[in-house]
Amino acid sequence: MNLGLSRTSSVLSKNTSKKRTALIVGAGVAGPVLAYFLHRYGVQPVVVERASHLRKGGQVLDLRETAAREVVQRMGIANAIRENLSGEKGVHLVDRNGRIQATFRSDDFGGKGFISDIEILRDRLVNILYDHTHRNVEYVFDDHPLSINDQENHVQVTFASGKSRDFDLVIGADGIQSKTRRLVFSNKTQKHYLGLNIAYFTIPRSPSDNEWGRWYNAPRGRTIILRPDNQGTTRVLLLFRSSDHGYENLNIDEKKAALQKHYHDAGFEISRILRELENTSEFYFETAVQINMDRWSQGRVALVGDAAYGTTANGFGTSKAFIGAYLLAGEIGRSQNHTEAFKQYEDLMRPFVNKTQNMFPLALRITAPETKTGIFVRNALLTAVSKLLNTRLGAKMSQSKPTESGNVLPDYDSLLLR
Ligand SMILES: Cc1cc2nc3c(=O)[nH]c(=O)nc-3n(C[C@H](O)[C@H](O)[C@H](O)COP(=O)(O)OP(=O)(O)OC[C@H]3O[C@@H](n4cnc5c(N)ncnc54)[C@H](O)[C@@H]3O)c2cc1C
After folding, report:
1. Furthest-apart CA pair in the chain: how many Å?
2. Whose CA is nearest to atom 6 of ligand 1?
3. What are the FAD-binding domain coordinates in residue numbering (predicted)?
4. Nearest CA to ligand 1 atom 29
5. Does residue 117 carry a pLDDT above 90?
6. What phi, psi does 285 have (nearest 5°)?
7. What is the per-residue pLDDT for 401?
8. Which residue's C-alpha comes closest to atom 50 of ligand 1?
9. d(CA 86, CA 231)
């Protein structure tokens, strides 16, 4: 990714007497990262989270972008993350009978392949971020903004609890279904349905599960991925193509019934998976969307992470959240002028967002080919690649680091309060 520049800055914010305040909506990934850096740059953050506690759940998230890993370093949480990795060795591509067709290790492609070398359960990551920030950041749970009124010299926010507070800035970090986006940017957002539905749930481990993920495709764009976690259970991902809308509006039982119908003849370990589906309490179902916006800010309100540029399940959500939050905090810290700060953030972040969003169609063809022929061709291709990786030359090529010349984060260190 090319974030353009690495520069030192004039420190405007340090010299002002009154601390600026920022409301951050959402305590997922982008929200706490933003709060961490804003606090370090002398801005007072308040994080409001709609759930009554940290919103847990979800599966493994990866940090495959070098710049995101750099943000983790600069936050001082790299060791905590390393200690909590899911421990997956890689992934086997398997056929209908579970026979291995191709193998990709987590350190293939410089640790940034199908399974990266930094994979962590979402719960663990969200906990680490909260633990690292809550002493210096006010967190408010079980509340959310009902109205956000930009009054030019401040923003007035009314909460569901009935409280009302003023802030210098409001940042929506409230995920792909962002309400902040709906309240402030409703006519400036394009939400594209990607023709893909995804269910995540957790099932008991069976003797066929080990430290390797297993990835299987059935015709009609049906993907099954089984992944070990470090909790003694197995995480299931069912991903299927369908241009029908409306799955997201079904209740849980109806969603489970739709999966039973869609998958019953898929093969591989589907009988076991569908049997356990009926018992699972941790179940998420999403219809994949992509958020496209010309601008991520308006007046004193801005968006970061999935709220601004989310694409469901394209593998870059967490990296974008870390990098976007870092850049936004840095630019707010650098300039008292929020219009200038938001513009700089957008200019720096836009190329990376465009790159990841443009990759989606190819990623989908690889992850969920639609027909038997498509699966055959994809498997043949990946088998050839995995065989090449097992040769000495292939392994060497895969481990060599890509040039990182454009991969430089701006340096905001001179803003840090020490
Ligand atoms: C429960 C859950 C499970 C997930 N599981 C996966 C997964 O398995 N694989 C994957 O790749 N990605 C998953 N994601 C998405 C992934 O976390 C994000 O793509 C990525 O980390 C970017 O994070 P974010 O902070 O922008 O958004 P998110 O991580 O989605 O965080 C948004 C936060 O905002 C809160 N929120 C929402 N609305 C409001 C509101 N109105 N007011 C206040 N707070 C609000 C949410 O409760 C959440 O805590 C999941 C997200 C969630 C919320």
Report:
1. 68
2. 58
3. 21-332
4. 28
5. no
6. -140, 130
7. 52
8. 58
9. 9
Q: Which atom of ligand 1 is nearest to the CA of 237?
A: 8
Chain segment 333-350, per-residue pLDDT in tens: 999 999 999 999 999 999
* Ligand 1 atom with minimal separation from the 126 CA: 29
- Provide the pLDDT for residue 189: 86
Q: What is the mean pLDDT of residues 178-184?
A: 97
* CA–centroid distance, residue 175 to ligand 1 (Å): 5
pLDDT digits (tens, 9 = 90+) for 144-177: 999 999 998 999 999 999 999 999 999 999 999 9
> Is the pLDDT reported for residue 8 higher than 90?
no
The DSSP line for 4-28 is ---------GGG-SSPPEEEEE--S
C-alpha span between 60 and 274 (Å, rounded): 21
- Contact 179 CB / ligand 1 (< 6 Å): yes
Pick the residue whose CA is nearest to atom 18 on ligand 1: 317
C-alpha of residue 44 to centroid of ligand 1, in Å:
23
Q: Where are the beta strands (DSSP E) in 34-177?
A: 44-49, 60-62, 90-94, 100-105, 119-121, 138-141, 145-150, 155-159, 164-167, 169-172
Rounded to whole angstroms, the Cα distance separating 225 from 345 reads 36
Rounded CA gap, 250 and 256, in Å? 9
Cβ of 122 below 6 Å from ligand 1: yes
Q: The domain 21-401 belongs to what CATH superfamily?
A: FAD/NAD(P)-binding domain (3.50.50.60)
Structure tokens at 230: 């470090």
Reported as a pLDDT band with limits 50, 70 and 90, residue 15 is very low
Measured CA distances, 18 to 43, 203, 271, 358 (Å): 9, 52, 62, 42
**Ligand 1 pocket check: which of 60, 122, 194, 201 to mutate, most ligand atoms within 8 Å of Cβ?**
122
